[in-house]
Write a structure and sequence with these properties.
Elements (H helix, E strand, L loop, with lengths): L2 E6 L14 E5 L2 E4 L13 H7 E8 L6 E13 L9 E4 L6 E6 L1
Antiparallel strand pairs: 1-5, 2-3, 2-4, 4-5, 5-7, 6-7
Length: about 110
């Protein structure tokens, strides 16, 4: 069983970037990418809340409005390797040749 929700990007995605397969974190009621290589993405949060901020993975952008995205909150999903992941996500399969790994989000 999968659960998906639509969220608005914090920055509105003005360059209409393809953000599919990115893990995202909540900032208020909107989302932003949760990259591993950006040490300051959690600067405004206490340590204990960092993991809980990551809510899911963008499964496809909204075609009509790039400022919104559909985010998968549970189930099997492909995630970019360079994104932050919650500690309770289970890696199902690693793709040695590509940028995506498969995870189970519960």
């Amino acid at each position: 069983m999968t659960n998906v929700e639509q969220f608005e990007w914090v920055d509105g995605n003005p360059k209409k970037e393809n953000r599919e397969h990115l893990s995202v974190r909540l900032v208020g009621s909107r989302i932003e990418p949760a990259y591993l290589d950006n040490d300051d993405i959690y600067a405004d949060m206490p340590n204990g809340e960092r993991d809980n901020a990551i809510v899911g993975v963008v499964i496809f952008p909204m075609d009509s409005d790039p400022g919104w995205a559909t985010v998968q909150l549970t189930g099997r999903v492909m995630v970019q390797k360079d994104c932050a992941k919650r500690s309770n996500w289970i890696k199902m399969q690693e793709n040695a040749r590509g940028p995506l790994d498969e995870y189970f989000i519960r």
